[in-house]
Write a structure and sequence with these properties.
Elements (H helix, E strand, L loop, with lengths): L2 H19 L22 H5 L6 H4 L24 H5 L6 H5 L5 H14 L9 E3 L7 E4 L7 H9 L15 H15 L2 H12 L7 H13 L14 H7 L1 E3 L3 E3 L4 H9 L3 E10 L3 E8 L2 E3 L4 E2 L4 H14 L4 E6 L2 E9 L8 E6 L2
Antiparallel strand pairs: 1-2, 3-4, 5-6, 6-7, 6-8, 9-10, 10-11
Helix pairs in contact: 6-9, 7-8, 8-10, 9-13
The chain binds 2-acetamido-2-deoxy-beta-D-glucopyranose (5 copies).
Keywords: Disulfide bond, Endonuclease, Hydrolase, Lyase, Manganese, Metal-binding, Nuclease, Repeat, RNA-binding, Secreted, Signal
Main location: secreted
GO cellular component, one term: extracellular region
């Protein structure tokens, strides 16, 4: 046999050998990336989309079967809770098995519990709206707005430059207002229940300081709204205060207290009424600083902690998708979005889909 023939035999045998194992994780679970094979068998393969087809079946713990929502488990090659999306270490069957696994029932149960615990919510007699007049809010009981979480929210409303593209600069005292507000809402039963639900279902670590950090990041850490822009926005500013984009667009503004106060201050003109839906959800059209928004849904009369709790749960459980549940026997659908061009999870928007 000449050298040439011998070499090609070696190549052929190697080829056969590789061929036999190249599509399988047999004996390879957890092995580092190996270019000699066509597919891989470690948790990174999920991210790179090059797992062998038998990876889920063969590699122990590589599947989300019976693990949906479980806390981060370092003994497992991949994870099955919402943060895995951020960290890129979800098991390959996470999407198919787990999204939707935090069942509508479990979600509805916690949302109803939050509603029942929202003792700060205004009673029906504490406010009146007139959907056919020129003003939406015709009466609000001022004493009912005097609660600490309401006052904390109201303090924050004037901290932001509402124009998209203009850099936010929060002063030391404004940052202290953020801290105070966060402390105040985190002390409510609504937020305690929110934390318990998120920790028990594995969406966050079981630590109140981690919960506080998570809320800070979701709502208050500043970010650039456009991927190449200046640091001009935050989840709180967008959802609770509202933003103006150019001369034609109002975006965000999904909080009834901000709507009421801006209407009272003459910055907002109610235009028409679109939808009212129980429980306490309305979607009016209005002008804000002269710019029209054709539909901006929000909860009416609820406390700031309730709105932020509901949106936060939807963000963490149904990131970038529809969060559907029932509340007071009514179907509710909330859409949330993450700011994708910044790592971590900052709320880009959160609103009722209707
Ligand atoms: C609502 O406003 C309209 C127009 O101003 C008025 O005619 C009507 O009486 C008001 N309705 C109530 C219930 O106050
Ligand atoms: C709000 O509370 C303060 C004291 O905390 C009180 O002086 C004030 O009268 C209250 N305002 C209303 C409208 O109840
Ligand atoms: C206004 O709200 C306060 C506190 O919630 C309550 O005690 C009071 O009775 C309400 N006033 C009216 C007129 O309903
Ligand atoms: C969270 O920690 C507390 C103690 O800090 C404990 O009582 C509770 O059972 C833990 N919950 C979960 C879901 O691990
Ligand atoms: C960001 O990029 C977009 C197009 O990609 C451009 O229209 C916009 O002016 C840029 N903004 C800034 C602040 O550079």
């Amino acid at each position: 046999m000449d050298v040439h023939a011998r070499l090609s035999l070696v190549f052929m045998l190697c080829g056969l050998f590789k061929e036999g194992l190249s599509d399988s994780c047999i004996g390879r679970c957890g092995e580092g990336a190996n270019k000699a094979y066509n597919c891989q068998c470690n948790s990174a393969c999920v991210r790179y989309n090059d797992c062998c087809s038998d990876y889920d079946a063969l590699c122990p713990g590589a599947t989300c079967s019976r693990r949906c929502g479980q806390s981060h488990d370092t003994t497992k090659p991949c994870q099955c809770n919402a943060p895995c999306v951020t960290y890129g270490d979800c098991c390959s069957d996470y999407q198919s098995l787990c999204q939707g696994q935090t069942t509508v029932d479990a979600l509805s149960a916690v949302m109803q519990d939050l509603w029942n615990s929202d003792t700060n919510r205004l009673s029906d007699s504490d406010y009146t709206i007139n959907t056919t007049g020129s003003r939406l809010f015709t009466y609000v009981n001022q004493t009912a707005l005097n609660k600490t979480t309401f006052q904390g929210l109201i303090c924050l409303l004037d901290n932001y430059n509402i124009r998209v593209g203009q850099t936010e600069q929060l002063t030391t005292s404004e940052l202290a207002e953020v801290d105070d507000f966060l402390n105040t809402i985190l002390a409510t039963a609504v937020m305690t229940k929110t934390f318990n639900f998120l920790a028990e279902s594995g969406y966050i670590t079981n630590s109140t300081s981690v919960f506080r950090d998570t809320m800070m990041e979701l709502w208050f850490n500043l970010y650039p709204r456009s991927s190449n822009g200046t640091t001009d926005s935050s989840g709180f500013e967008h959802v609770m205060v509202g933003e103006l984009k150019g001369t034609k667009t109002v975006s965000g503004l999904h909080n009834w207290i901000q709507f009421y106060l801006e209407e009272k201050n003459g910055n907002l003109q109610y235009a028409s009424f679109l939808i009212r839906k129980e429980p306490n959800i309305i979607a009016p059209a209005f002008f804000w600083h002269g710019i029209k928004k054709t539909k901006s849904p929000f909860f009416l009369g609820t406390s700031p902690e309730f709105d932020m709790a509901v949106y936060s749960i939807c963000c963490l459980v149904y990131r970038d998708s529809l969060c559907k549940f029932t509340l007071q026997n009514q179907a509710v659908s909330i859409q949330t979005w993450d700011i994708v061009h910044k790592s971590g999870y900052q709320v880009a928007s959160a609103y009722h889909k209707m």
